[in-house]
Design goal:
The protein is of the alpha/beta class. Helices cover 37% and strands 14% of the residues. It is built from 12 helices and 13 strands. The chain is globular. It starts with 7 loop residues before the first helix and ends with a helix.
């Protein structure tokens, strides 16, 4: 049998009545840009995360860029972030006019290693962007301690970590601001691009909302950008949001099953969860010494996989000007050849889960 990496159509079928009704309402009212559905989304998501302000925008990448602008970060500044992430995290730093400074990752969580941050801090450093990668929270306490010590801002990149918890606190509530993506495949996904910023800083939220909407409607107090959430996407997200807790538990259940069945497989390392954290498994990423051979074995048996991500950020041509070598980020470099994302998504069937497990077990190192 074939096992998809993810199947969003199953989610739609399960919520067809709610989603179709939400879309019909937007069309009926012609509330395509901003409007009541977006307002409701911002209210509901702020309450879900537990923050004072939610500012919707067009996508998760814009969200990071807008926050950087809101914090006054630009030319001559430096921003520290992880060597292992999607490029949205780092490219927005450059787009804001600052210089990206990469830090290596922890061997077990794939998140930024707090122990290696301080040596990268200079007089030009203005902020740290930890990424809660794959759905596992970064180790925030030491990061926040460093930020307080050096007067730095902290922007949480929560694109893959909706409802993940660090020491009982939902990620997105720990730093000065946080950003979320609602790309269709995310744990809470739209049917197109969408994103948001959350913060308890009312002045920052006001700037971000203004900047994302051309610097203000009618009275332009600044030059901004056009980054507005579509009414359709907001309505769809509102329909899905009530199910996020249930879907998160389904992801955790599948992950627990994988852990139980695969943890003793020779040559394979299952993802860990730090004791004080809650992993929401946007991705279930294993490590294997013969990753490419295992991936081909899975492909031959109909199991889809993805490499998230095939290269650590400092080693892409886009960052060749930084002149980094593998020795600068040994952990992230090592992960490049070992990580493999296997299927995990709500509505995954029991026989599909068994097929993934049995196919991996049948691979001989």
């Amino acid at each position: 049998m074939k096992v998809p990496f993810a199947d969003l159509s199953r989610q739609y079928v399960a919520l067809k009545a709610q989603i179709d009704a939400a879309i019909a309402e937007v069309i009926r009212d012609s509330s395509f840009i901003r409007g009541p559905h977006v307002d409701l989304f911002e209210k509901k998501f702020a309450e879900l995360i537990g923050v004072s302000n939610c500012v919707s925008c067009a996508n998760g990448t814009d969200a990071i860029y807008i926050v950087l602008k809101g914090l006054g970060i630009g030319l001559g500044d430096e921003v520290i972030t992880t060597a292992h992430s999607w490029i949205s995290t780092s490219e927005t730093i450059t787009q804001a006019g600052a210089r990206v400074v990469f830090v290596d990752t922890e061997p077990d969580t794939f998140c930024i290693d707090p122990k290696q941050i301080e040596k990268k801090i200079t007089k030009k450093t203005k902020a740290i962007i930890p990424v809660h990668l794959y759905g596992h929270p970064a180790d925030m306490d030491p990061i926040l301690d460093l930020a307080e010590k050096y007067g730095l801002k902290v922007i949480e990149d929560c694109a893959q970590a909706h409802l993940a918890k660090y020491k009982s606190k939902i990620v997105g509530t720990l730093g000065d601001a946080a950003t979320f993506s609602f790309y269709p495949g995310k744990n809470l996904g739209a049917m197109g691009d969408a994103g948001c910023i959350v913060t308890n800083d009312f002045a920052l939220a006001d700037f971000c909302a203004t900047y994302a909407r051309h610097g203000g409607k009618n009275e332009h107090v600044m030059e901004g950008i056009n980054s507005r959430m579509d009414g359709l996407q907001a309505a769809i997200l509102n329909a899905k949001m009530d199910f996020l807790h249930t879907w998160t538990e389904e992801r955790k259940s599948i992950a627990q099953h994988y852990n139980q069945e695969l943890s003793k497989t020779p040559g394979l390392i299952c993802p860990i969860v730090r004791p004080d954290c809650s992993h929401v498994y946007h991705l279930y990423v294993i490590q294997h010494e013969k990753r490419d051979d295992l991936r081909e074995h899975l492909h031959q048996h109909g199991v889809s996989t993805v490499l998230n991500y095939p290269k650590a950020l400092p080693f892409y041509r886009a960052y060749s000007y930084l002149k980094h070598s593998s020795s600068d980020f040994p952990t992230a470099h090592n992960h490049q050849t070992k990580i493999l994302s296997i299927p995990i998504f709500p509505f995954m069937k029991e026989n599909e889960i068994k097929t993934v497990i049995n196919t991996i077990k049948s691979f001989s190192i």
